[in-house]
Amino acid sequence: MKRMFFNLALVAGYAIPVIPGWADNYAIVYDDASIQTGEAIHNSYAWSHLTNATTIGEVPLLQDSKAIRYIREYHRDVQLIGPYVRMANGDVLPGVPAGLLPADEERGLDKRLQVQVSPPCMGFNANDRAVSVRTDRVAAIVSDPSKEANLAPGTLELKDGTQITVKSLRWGEDGLKLLTAEGVKRVSYAALDCYKARKVDTWTALQEDASVTSPDPHDRLVQIRLVNGAVLTAKRMLLIEVDRNVIGIQPAWAYSGIRFDTRQHVVSRTYRALNEVPLSLFPVTSLKQQSATGFQWSWSRDRNLRGDELGCNELRAGYGLATHSYSELAVELPPDAHRFTSWVGIDRAVGKGGCVECAVYGDEKGGTPLWQSGFIRGGEDPLCIPPIDVSSFKRLVFVTDFGQDGRPEGADPLDIRDELDWLNPTIILKRVPKVETPKRYARIYEQLLEWQGAEAWSKETLTGPCVLRWWRLYSEGLYLDIQEEFRLKRTLTVSPTNAWLHVRATRARQGVGGHVISLHVNGRLHEPRGWIARENNVFVRKWLNLETQTKTAGSLGAMDWDLGRYLGQEVTLELVLQPAKKPGVPLPYLVLENIQFRPAIYAVNDAYVAPVIPEINLESIPPQATELVMEGATLQAGKDVTGQPLQVYHFPYATGLGVPAGSSLSYTLDPAWKRFVAVVGYTGINWKEVGPYQVFFDDESSWVSSSPIRFGWWSRGTQVDIPIPPGSKTMTLKIAPGEAHGAWAQSGFMTQAKPPAAGDPLSEP
After folding, report:
1. Is the pLDDT of residue 466 over 90?
2. Does domain 616-750 have CATH number 2.60.120.1060?
3. Which of 116, 324, 458, 631 has a CA that sits 20 to 30 A from residue 730's CA?
C-alpha cells in the first residue's frame, strides 16, 4: 500500500505518520513525502540492515530517487520503566552503573563507566551485558522516570531518599566521590538511586554524533528506539549485522558496542542529515504560565502532557515539546543554527477538543513573530512551519495562547483541552559539525608494525566496528581505500609458535564488490587451509580464499595459512590485497581486523605455548597392551594410521603415534616419570571430527579433552601436560570411537615434577 501525506518534504524533522487501524505492520516514510506500508520487510532480517534487494511487500525499500526518513512498527510501543542512563545527546541506555574501567592509553581510551544493560540490550561479547560508556557524556542516572523531571541539576539521590547537592564528582571503580558544601562524600553505585548532572554539554555531544568518521561522506544518522525505552544514535554506515535478526550499534558516547535481537524489540528507526539536530534537546526555560480555569499544566519534553507519545491526528513524533495555553517557552539555539522547522497541532489525545493560537519569536516575545498560526483546533491536521531563518537569534520563544477572541463556533472556551504538540522541531545547521572525536585504535595497528608497506596507514586511518559472527564478538578494524593491488611484506623464521598466519577481514557497507586476500611465500602463491569434503564418494580437499565481496558487510571472514612445512626456515611473506571491482561502480572499503601469527597448539589454560618436548618419547616404550580398531593398523613412530608423516592441525610432528579412533594403548609406568605430555587434535585424514581424547592412570580417568571436546578441521591442537599420580602403575590412552583418526603427537614422559615456567602468552585467539 502506498499513501501520500501532506508536504513532509518541507520539514527537516519528518514526523512519524501513523494511521490508526492500518492492518500493515510497517510504514516507511520517504523524504519526498510518500509513505509505503506492508506486513513485512523482506530480505533484510527485518530490521538488521537495508540493501538494494530489500523490499516492503513487493516494492524495493531503497530507491535512488528518494531517501528513507522513518521506519515504524505499528504494533509495538516504547515503555521506559527504568533504571536507565540518559546521555548528553538524548540517547537512553537502560541499565545500572556497575563499575569503572581504567584508561587504556595504547588504544586512546579514557576511564569508562561500565553499565549493566537491561534486555533486550546486550554487550557485543557473547553472554556479556556490560557496555562501556564515556563518563563525560552521562547526563543522568535514573531509577524511575517519574523522578528525573523533579530532580534538580547537580543533585544526587540515594536509595534511602537522602538528597545531596553536588558541586563536582569523580567516577571511581566502586562508586562516586562527591564534592559538596559539607566536604567530600563517597557513594557506592549500589546505594545510588538517581543523579542529574549539573551541566550537560548537549551541543558537543550532538556534534560528535555527526563527526564520527564513516566511510561514506554522505552518511546519515540513524536513531533506533526499542520497546524498553532504549534510544541509540549512530552513523548508519556503522550499524553491524551480528547474526540473523541481531544487529549492533556503537554510539559516539560508547566505548563498546550494543547489540539486540530485532524480533519484537525495535519500535522505530529515524534517519536525519548530519546537519540536522532536534531542538527539544537544548535547554528550555518557562517564561510564563497561566491558566484560565485554575488548572496548572507544565510543559513536557519529547512526550505529550499526559506522558504518552507526541501525536496529532495521523502524525506521531519521536521528539518535540508539549505545551498548554497560556505558556511561553524559550529554547536555546545551538551555535551555527541556520533554519528552524516543525509541525504543530493539538494532541490527538483530546480528540476534537481544544482551541489555541500559537507563534514563534526570535530571542524575546514582541514585535512581529517569525511565524504565527491562527486558530488551531483538535482533530485538525497539524500545521507545517516552513523553514525559518534563525541565524541571527540566540533562542526561540514558543507562545501557546488561548484561542479565545473570535474563536470558531463550537470550539472549547478558555483553556479547556488546549494540549498543543510541537512535533519534531528541528534546527538545520549552516554546515555539518566537525569536532575531534575520541581515538580508538584498533589492535591491528600493533600487528602491522612488522609489515613493510603498512607505514602508509597512520593512526589517523579510519577505525570502525566489525563482528566475528561465529562467536558474536565485537571488534574494530581499519577501513582502507585500496583501489589497486597492494602488498604487505615481511620475513620471519617459522617456529611452532608462529606456524599459522591468521587474517580476518570484511568490507564496508557502501559500494559493490570487495577484495581478495592471498599469501605468497618466497614468491609463490601459498594455499590457505582447507577442509575435507566428499565428492563422488571420494574425499577431496577444498581450498578457500578470503574474498570480502562474498561476506556480509561488517561481518568478518577469516582465513588461515599453514606455515608448518617451513619449520626452522626463514621465509619471505607477502600478503596480497587485490580489488575485485566492476568498472564504473564504487568499490567498498576493505576492513582489516586481524593479521596475526598463531602457534600450532592452544594450551588448556587458554595461553598460547610452544609444544613441550618429552624427555622419553612414547614410541620408544613398548606398550603393555594395544587395541587398534582398524584392520591392518600398526603403530609407526612419527606416522599417522595411513603411514603418512604425522601432523596435528596441519602441523608436522617428527615423533609420536597415529592411532585409529576407538583405540587404546596401555603402558607400565616407571616411578621416575612424573608427567605425561602430548599434542592431540585433528590429524587431517578425513573430514570427520575426532575425540574426545582420554588419559587413565590405574584405570581411573585423569584427563579428558574438553576445550574442545572433539577436534575438527577448524581446531588447533591441544597440549596435554598432566602429572602422574604418585604410586600409579599403569597409564592407558584412549580415543573415543568414530570415523576419524587421532594422534598422540610429540608424546612421552618427563622426569620433572613441575612443568617449566611458561613464557609470556602470545596474543588472544
Report:
1. no
2. yes
3. 631
